[in-house]
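**User:** I keep going back and forth on a fold encoding question. It is easy to fool oneself when nobody else works the same problem. Could you pick a protein and write out its sequence and tokenised fold? Could you put it straight underneath, so I can go through it closely?

**Assistant:**
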Amino acid sequence: MRKLLLLLFTVVTMMAPAQKYVGGDISMLPKYEDAGVVYKDKDGNTVQPLTFFKEQGLNAMRVRLFVDPSQDNDKAVCQDLDYVKTMGKRIKDAGLQFMLDFHYSDTWADPGKQWTPNAWKNLNDADLANKVYEYTKDCLQQLKDAGAEPDMIQTGNEISYGMLWGTQAAVGSNQTNRCYTSSSSANWNRFFNLLKKAGQACRETCPNAKIILHSERTPKPSVLTDFFDRMKNNAIDYDIIGLSYYPDHHGNLATLETALNTLEGKAYGKDIMIVETGYSYAWAIGTEFNYTATYPYTEEGQRRFTADLVTLLNQHSSVKGLFWWWPEDNGNKQVTNNWWNAALYDHNTGKPYAALYELKNFVGGSSSIGTVNHEPLTNNQTWYTLDGRRLAAKPSAKGLYIHNGIKIVIK
């Protein structure tokens, strides 16, 4: 019996999945709290947000960091180092993992704008790379000293086309420092040097943290693979492929699955995380794709999208993270310039939308093991082998399969 128990323990241990993380980018939470916004549970009871998030099965939170946000007039651009130290410590003290998102800019950094901080604008390429190293190292050390050491670090935000292009006033539409698949190697080499310096600072200061490279080119697998091929060929040190996926901008769930399958097929040896996602409860957040025939802009439509997204991600063993962007937007308090129409809170009641309660299934979905003996199985259900092969019909042989994101033993 002891040998049997030991064998069973060994098998279960071998089947145990790697740690998965689910949460959100809650960079504006302190501003809402300062404005008197009240957060409630679905029954209307007032809650402390971080405690409540953890009780709902969320285990990680993301916060962005700007170099000097005082240069921007957007109320949502306010996360300087002191702000992030305080917020990061709250996250860690709540028993949650902390993802830090370096923007390396005074304002929003995304594929259309990666502007160099004003204080760095006169640096040449070599000095700029050294500044990235010094700044990254200093920020991380101060976070550690404040009890807010990050567990995951994004060295740049949506950096598909490079970063630190120059100042907006000086560069405008100039393409000099931007990286494209057809651009000269000089642009890319400059970018690689910046990433290497950022990664070096991360490894030296927070050696246990995972480094994330973040792209939003989810609907363009060829651009994704070109980007990550270049990272591999130039020995860029990182651990996780981070993706943005917003249906209104990027397309349907099949588009996301194609991107995941393509990345997995390249065998980069990296985990994948969806570090930004969101879907509206009322109004469109983009104009590129309309998904309302499948998921209406309602609370239920948002919930169904979230549930189906979780089911899809749980069928990919490489996907280890899911983060909703700006879930905490709540209340008409003029905290920001605009509402975020894909938040997870009802602005009128302060109660969470149903989608928030679906997120926990990303962590739990692929970690449970069920058993099927002789229950009837329908042919219109999706089954996968453990190595990710989709089956054409219900499995007939005994073994371990994945069904609806759950490991099932068929005897």
